[in-house]
Amino acid sequence: MTTLNDRYERAANIVPAAARLPAWQKGYARQLIAIDTVGVMLAVGSAHWLRFGALGGQTMPAYRPAYYLAVSIAIAAAWMAALSINHSRSLRVIGSGAEEYRRVFLATLATFGGVAIISMVFKLEIARGYLLIALPAGISLLILFRWIARLAVRNAREKYGRCVTRVLVVGSASAVRDLTTSFARERRSEYKVAGACIPGPARRTKLDVPGVGTIPVFGDESHVVGAVSATNSHAVAVTATDRLDSRGIRDLSWELEKLDIDLLVSPGVVDIAGPRLQMRPVCGLPLIHVEKPQYHGAKRFQKRLFDVVFSGSVLFFGLPILLGVALAVKLTSRGPVLYRQERIGLDGHAFEMIKFRTMVDGADRMVEKLAALNDCEGGVLFKIRQDPRVTPLGRLLRKYSIDELPQFINVLKRDMSVVGPRPPLASEVRSYDDYARRRLLVRPGITGLWQVSGRSDLSWEDSVRLDMFYVENWSMIADLLIAIKTVKAMFRPSGAY
User: In 10 A of CB 331, how many CB atoms?
Assistant: First the structure.
């Protein structure tokens, strides 16, 4: 019987802690220091030069150049310190998610808030124009540089398989498969499963994961330390298992602590975003509180305001494009300019969705004849990659999603939202189960997670999964990010047919 002390001794003799840490994370964090320094210096330097001239005395001779030069240096130093104090380069947040950007934003606001307070208390004369230039320039440059750094990391993962964290998964066979599939689904994911330990009496050397391949298995939970060494893993992820209780997880965390290996514990909930999860220590137990989805009140007002302003702006400034497309559709094929189709919206209510016609007139009556050509998996959606009903102009309009511009009228009519689940047909809704029917809790959108994640290339299951994730976790920040990503997807039109 292996005792805890025996396992401690094995852990202490495996590999020095420094060698176990993923080198790319430490290098990436050091590079962010240089990137932040450049961003801060550019922001402060440009504000100094634009407001006071090259040395601070050309436009405001009453102030000595040395005074504002000292102010600029002090602000830059305080700014860099605030970024460090706010842990904006923490290994837990860099490279993915919005938390890194949030910390950069808060550190910047704290810096300039501190400057404002100090100048007021000590009656220092710091030009407001200088701060009004430096603040937005700094936030924009820091976030832009961080975004470029992320692109470099994502490119290294997709093309070369670098900048990844190797993970050993501990859990039941089904849980290991689910977690491995989730990691593999996103090509830009930081984590790569290197092996597994599966508790239980069954002995196996490998585990087949559909769509991913085979991963090696290194015994049960008592072999975790040796498996970490064998797979050169940087982290251990514990997911659903009946054999590893709370005390076992505690003992495992003590073992991994000596190796400086991260321990990740999957809470067993899916499609729940971080803002809805809150850790609450109760009686010494770390309980995860899952907030209910919010569809009403202030959030609904914010979403409606965004819909009206955004849609009105698109229709007003895009009027020449709308008129040009309408004329082109009319001149190149017979039939009406606009195509109207019944879709199902909020709470299951039907509405008439409008878009530019991209198919020959009467295309709806050809569906039964072309049913055998359906390329969409799952049998619910009907999509054909080389649809013979699509006109030459329609193919171009679909490729860049120009045919969907009239749907902004639906948004103003409250039938749709700018961002939301894909608007389903009545025939699709009749096949929904209780899980998929929750898509109808919010208004369908012109764009959404499905639009920026592959569009028609998605399977039915993936389309439902993405829509459900949005419904359960929607927020204004998420809507803004999806809207920005939609512009990128329009210029890189994959999955549009």
Answer: 8
Cα 192 from Cα 233, distance rounded (Å): 9
DSSP states of 247-311 as a string? HHHHHHHHHHHHHT-EEEE--S--S--GGGEEEEEETTEEEEEEPPP--STHHHHHHHHHHHHHH
CATH of the domain at 197: 3.40.50.720
Span 180-235, pLDDT tens digits: 888 887 777 788 888 998 887 777 888 888 878 888 998 887 888 888 888 888 88
Residues 337 and 218 in one domain: no
**319 and 247 within one domain:** no
| pTM: predicted TM-score of the whole model, two decimal places | 0.63
Structure tokens at 120: 């007021």
The number of C-alpha atoms within 13 Å of 385 and in the hemisphere containing its C-beta is 7
Q: What DSSP designation does 390 have?
A: B
**pLDDT band per the 50, 70, 90 thresholds, residue 15:** very low
Which of 425, 403, 398 lies closest to 341 in space, CA to CA?
425
Amino acid at 151: L
Name the nearest CA neighbour of 320 among 400, 402, 416.
402
| Cβ burial 48-60 (10 Å sphere, 16+ → b, else e) | beebbeeebbeee
Tokens encoding 161: 């398989």
- Report the candidate in 148, 106, 113, 133 with the shortest Cα–Cα distance to residue 42: 133
130 near 51, Cβ under 8 Å? yes
Query: Residue 262: beta bridge partners?
Result: 235
Q: Is residue 284 part of a domain?
A: no
| Domain of residue 67, residue span | 23-160
CB-based contacts of 485-490 (< 8 A; 24+ apart in sequence) = 485/452, 486/401, 486/447, 486/451, 486/452, 488/452, 489/401, 489/451, 489/452, 489/455, 490/400, 490/401
Does residue 11 sit within a domain? Answer: no
